[in-house]
Amino acid sequence: MAHPTAAVPAGAPVAEPPLVRRQIAAWAAWDWGSAAFNAVVTTFVFTVYLTGSSFVEPGADVEAVTALHSQWLGWGLAAAGVLVALTAPALGTLADAGGRRRPLLAVTSLVVGLCILALWFVQPVEGGMADAVRLGVTLLAVGTIAAEIAGVAYNALLLQISGPRTIGRVSGIGWGAGYVGGIVLLLVLYFGLIQPEVGLFGVTSEAGMDVRVSMLIAGLWFLAFAVPVLVAVPDRRRPGAPERVGLVGAYVTVGRHIATLWRERRSTLRFLIASAVFRDGLTGVFTFGGVLAAGTFGFSPGEVIVFAIAANVVAGAATIAAGWLDDRFGPRRVVTWSLVVLVLAGTAVFLLHDLGASAFWAGGLVLSACVGPAQSASRALLARLAEPGRETEVFGLYATTGRAATFLAPAAFSLAIALGGGQYWGILGIVAVLLLGLLLFVPVRFPRGLGVDGRRDVATTTMGA
């Protein structure tokens, strides 16, 4: 059953709820805490430990075994992605129908936190290395599913703490908090536990103790910062939400909603497709940045971490600042110009790769400054497009389309290397995905009156799409 957004007469002011700083801070705290999973578990610490030499049986071929473990990790995360794609929209519909986004966020956040804490049990034991890796992959996959679903509910709450003129700013604060939280936690764990031979509490690397204790701290960090949003941000059923439905009915409702989007709000559907492509390119910038820094530009492992911290500092600051530009000039312009600069900077890094580390530092920090703003503005744009009462469902579709395109950046990276014959050619693969996303995004025409094209058009609403 369609629930079209009611048209607002031209020139009529759009209600702008007052910002409640306590709620914004509580909401952003969840993003801050989520860095424990995104940065520490899946990017810089645990997955490196899980696919490294620590889990190779004595006498075994290190290269072959670590490659096998990396394959297990890839397949586990791929399976998690499929399950997210299949469940996110329906769970979003159920949450919208009951006006219960916060319970969905609470349950999934608890699962993520428990999965991180359980990584303590993933330890290298002779004769049981493979079992330990399988346990780690399983916990990562379950945690990934829960984190993605939690993100759906979390993103939908954005509209409960912001208004048409402030949504970009608030989104930027949240996304920036995620980057800064990752920096703080990485610094604490790296210098407190991982780098020293004997770290805090007398912890050493024996039996992976430094990483395992890091997971306990990361799990508690995630759970602690998940609490404020659950306490401070109210949960309410918004007008236009679908009626209460069961699980099967939720899938039927999602199907009808997609059909309605195709007939009446095709711009939203086109945006979902375009954003899936460029968001995968944005992910690829960070995913393969460390690999390129070490393999092409000669960074040591320590230098890679230093660059990662610097990149996150730049990304966090730029994202918070870009939130103001989003509200003033609209998320369409922020996304467009961020992608344009990303394509140009990525191409420059490719062309200047012979200059070594200095080229990577300069180009890499420019890339980092654009990734966060593009991600945050994309979320704010979709929040503006979402029909009242259907926000969690549409963010479920956002997660689904994003998951459907996750093969693009890795495939383009690998294909470019195969065609060019050197690792640095992979840069062009990532640039190609970003360029494709830009070309798909630019032609999309959005309804006026939603703030997509800047603050000035918030006051006039024409809901044709």
Measure the end-to-end span. Answer: 18 Å
Uncertain stretches of 5 or more adjacent residues: 1-14, 459-465
Rounded average pLDDT: 82
The radius of gyration computed from the alpha-carbon positions, rounded to a whole number of angstroms, is: 22 Å
SS-derived structural category: mainly alpha
CATH topology of the largest domain: Growth Hormone, Chain: A
Number of helices in the DSSP assignment = 17
Number of DSSP strand runs: 0
Q: From N to C, what is the helix and strand string?
A: HHHHHHHHHHHHHHHHH
Shape: globular
Instruction: Quickly give the CATH architecture of the largest domain.
Output: Up-down Bundle
Sheet with most strands = none
| Percent helix range | over 70%
CATH superfamily of the largest domain: MFS general substrate transporter like domains
Please state roughly what percent of the residues sit in beta strands, choosing from under 5%, 5-15%, 15-25%, 25-35%, 35-45% or over 45%: under 5%
CATH class of the largest domain equals Mainly Alpha
What's the number of structural domains? 2
Word description of this protein:
With 465 residues, the protein is mainly alpha-helical. The protein folds into 2 domains: 18-235 and 243-263, Growth Hormone, Chain: A (Up-down Bundle); 265-453, Growth Hormone, Chain: A. It has 17 helices and no strands. Helix 4 runs antiparallel to helix 8, helix 10 (266-287) packs across helix 15 and helix 13 (331-351) packs antiparallel against helix 14 (357-385). 51% of the residues are buried.
Q: Topology of this structure?
A:
Blueprint: H1 21-44, H2 46-50, H3 62-98, H4 101-118, H5 129-156, H6 158-161, H7 167-194, H8 209-232, H9 247-264, H10 266-287, H11 289-295, H12 301-329, H13 331-351, H14 357-385, H15 391-404, H16 408-420, H17 426-441
Helix pairs in contact: 1-5, 1-7, 1-8, 3-4, 3-5, 3-9, 3-15, 4-5, 4-8, 5-15, 7-8, 7-12, 7-14, 9-10, 10-14, 10-15, 10-17, 12-13, 12-14, 13-14, 13-17, 16-17
